Amino acid sequence: YCADPYFMDVDPQVLNLKSNIPYFSFPFSLPLELGKEGTVINIDNSLYCTTPLYITIKGASVNPVLTNETTGEYISLAKTLTADEKIVINTAFGSKSIIKIDEDGTENNAFHYILPGSTLFSLAAGKINKLSYTAESKDDESEAIVEFYYRYSGV
Question: Of 37, 53, 58, 137, whose CB has the highest number of CB atoms within 10 Å?
């Protein structure tokens, strides 16, 4: 038995899907773009193996959803998060979990928030995976942090 037979990068890839990524600001309004929506990212996994994700959702939001637009898979939660709560999702085979972390650091199982049809998906191998983060509503500080290690079947 081998728990995980793949070789992995030493350092994780950490990507942020933030509601609003500011460029800079002025003390007055101008008709130009001072930020951008950062809720969609492309991850090139075209040379690698199926790759599990470690996702942290934080910031005030209602019913957050992380979608792999490439495969159509999604993780949808029936939960209203406060600004001080976090949801941590692990999609690794044999370690799948959804944990809610309260403001005081208390951790609780949060699997009961997952909606039917959701899949604790991994990055598809041999593809560019387009991930998006949405919610029924969310504040400007709401974000999904996606962390993963590229995996290799041989060296």
Answer: 53
